[in-house]
Specification:
By secondary structure, the chain is of the alpha/beta class. The chain has helices at residues 39-51, 66-76, 100-105, 121-138, 151-161, and strands at 9-15, 59-62, 83-85, 143-149, 180-185. Strands 3-2-4-1-5 form a five-stranded mixed beta sheet, with helices on both faces. α1 packs parallel to α2 (66-76) and α4 crosses α5. The radius of gyration is 16 Å and the shape is globular. Mean pLDDT is 90; it is low at 1-6.
């Protein structure tokens, strides 16, 4: 006799707080430049922690980059959960600096040429989709999971949740620093 598999969970997705690089105060070498939060980013994370103080999470998952770990820890001060660090939730990998135009174009599924030094967009989305599938397999109905990661990762989460075809430029739902989005994952 088979068991019906109809589990869904609530996903809270948070983009990390501000850093000197994404505020424009410093030029990044790569998207995975591992910088800490700046003073504004810490204040943003503190404000978000207060907003989320009474939300119950069953798990907190974070990219292992400093900015996401710091954001996770600040939010977690009211929840006292173990934070699961997972490389799958890292930002789109690059080995070269990308300006805003090149960053936007990196999310274009219709590009025929490979951009050297940038993780192929299909591989990146597949990595995030697999991470989401893993969360679904681990957490069930009525579970709430907080994921703290980066803005590029959110593009894949947005596409996954909304069943969007992987075509065109998928940079469709930008987030501000320490913005939170809520999703039902079915």
């Amino acid at each position: 006799m088979g068991v019906a598999y109809n589990r869904d969970m609530k996903l809270y997705f948070v983009r990390h707080g501000e850093t000197d690089v994404n505020s424009g105060l410093q030029q990044a070498q790569t998207a995975q430049f591992d910088e800490p939060l700046n003073a504004a980013g810490i204040a943003q994370a503190e404000q978000l922690a207060e907003r989320l103080r009474d939300v119950t999470f069953d798990a907190i998952v974070s990219s292992p980059l400093q900015r996401t770990v710091q954001t996770s820890r600040i939010i977690n001060k009211f929840h006292h959960l173990d934070i699961l660090l997972d490389d799958a939730w890292k930002e789109l990998s690059t080995t070269t600096y990308l300006d805003a135009i090149a960053w936007h174009e990196a999310f274009n599924f219709d590009r025929s040429e490979v951009i050297e030094g940038i993780e192929p967009i299909r591989d990146f989305f597949e990595r995030i989709y697999m991470a989401l599938d893993s969360l679904k397999a681990t957490y069930g109905k009525a579970d709430s999971v907080l994921v703290v990661s980066s803005g590029g990762v959110h593009q894949a989460v947005h596409a996954y949740v909304n069943g969007l075809p992987l075509a065109g430029n998928m940079r469709l739902s930008p987030m501000k620093n320490c913005e939170i989005r809520e999703y039902e994952i079915v």
